[in-house]
Amino acid sequence: MSISIPHDRLGAGALARDSAWQPSDARRKAQLALAAIWLLDGVLQYQPYMFTKAFATQIIAPTAQGNPGVIADPITWSARIIADHPIGTNTAFATIQLLLGLAIAWRPTVKVALAASIGWSLAVWWLGEGLGGVLTGSASPLSGAPGAVIIYGLIAVLVWPVKQKPDASPDTFLAARPIGAAAARGLWLVLWGSLAYFSLQSSNTGSQDMHDMISGMAQGQPGWLAAIDNHAASLVAHDGLAASIVMAVVLAVIALGVYLPARAARITLVLALVTAAVIWVVGEAAGGLIGGQSTDPNSGPLLALLVFLYWPMSGRSREGAAR
Asked: Are 97 and 42 in contact (CB under 8 A)?
């Protein structure tokens, strides 16, 4: 005995299945990349060192130094609380970051999670990173300025899910979709322009300043990574000012690159990707992920993710991003 199913029902069922499954677009991939980084942060926060008082006294408290009192006092207050209750507070921090990653990865909660991640990023940037040292006069792109966690918040804004209006002009790059191309380019200019500015601060332009910063990061790293850092440090020995000027020029070119035509913009974005890799490996020692005391991968991977968000799209890419 055979049962025949009307063709219209088969068509409706196939349509329902097709609508239930949709391929991941470029924006969704960027959201998932951000989710993965938050999950990594949560895992790193569960390292044994983070459950000791040293996390508060050696990582949190020092970020207050050099900051104005209105910024430094809350940092000192939070460090004291964490030192008094290291297990409970750190468990909360790690769990929050894991939940942020999972919630961003789950489509029904992505907007709530992105909004929460912006708030959490701002809180950690202040109370955990001392605003990345941008007010202390000692911030440097090689040390992760303006602070990795504030870039998390920026990326959350740029990957915010919005529906493309039927009559709207196609976006030229992913970051333009939530806030518009002009605002997105302005944020890129502020971020990379600030890195150029930090490069030329007096604390970074001494003859041995860059050498000492890079060689200091090599300590405690695996042999291959320490060798790379030590070699890089030797290249800038006694030439800190010249190296800082070159770095500032490169960063300024990158900052202005998003205002160039698409072909030229792509060249500056490749330069940004290479610069992010150099910062991460040479200046940040691969985020210090191997030492057991890192709370995040630092700014290098986040700067690379930004390059993806600002890459000029072709017509076919724009259609995929509009899904």
From this structure: yes
- Cα angle for residues 57, 61, 67 (degrees, 5° grid): 160
C-alpha 169, offset from chain centre: 29
> In the structure, what pLDDT confidence band is assigned to residue 149 with cuts at 50, 70 and 90?
very high
CA distances for 47 relative to 4, 44, 130, angstroms? 60, 6, 22
3-state secondary structure of 137: coil
Q: Residue 109 — pLDDT band, cuts 50, 70, 90?
A: very high
**211-245 burial code (b ≥16 CB/10 A, e <16):** bebbbebbeebeeebbebbbebbeebeeebbebbe
Tokens 């976006």: give the residue.
171
Per-residue pLDDT of 208-263, as tens digits, reads 999 999 988 888 788 888 899 999 999 999 999 999 999 999 999 999 999 999 99
- 193 contacts 252 by C-beta, under 8 angstroms: yes
Report DSSP letters for 23-74, one per residue: ---HHHHHHHHHHHHHHHHHHHHTSGGGGSHHIIIIIIGGGGTTS-HHHHHH
Quick one: which of 194, 219, 74, 76 has its CA closest to 144? 194
b (16+ CB within 10 A) / e for 129-150: bbbbbbebebbbbbbbbbbbbb
Q: How far apart are CA 251 and CA 195, in angstroms?
A: 7
Residue-level length of the chain: 323
More confident residue, 271 or 284: 271
Please give the helix or strand (H or E) that residue 172 lies within, else none. none
Please report the DSSP string for 281-322 in residue order.
Answer: IIISSGGGTTTT--SS--HHHHHHHHHHHHSPPPHHHHHHHT
Alpha carbon distances (Å) from 234 to 93, 227, 264:
39, 11, 33
Residues 22, 112: Cα–Cα separation, whole Å: 21
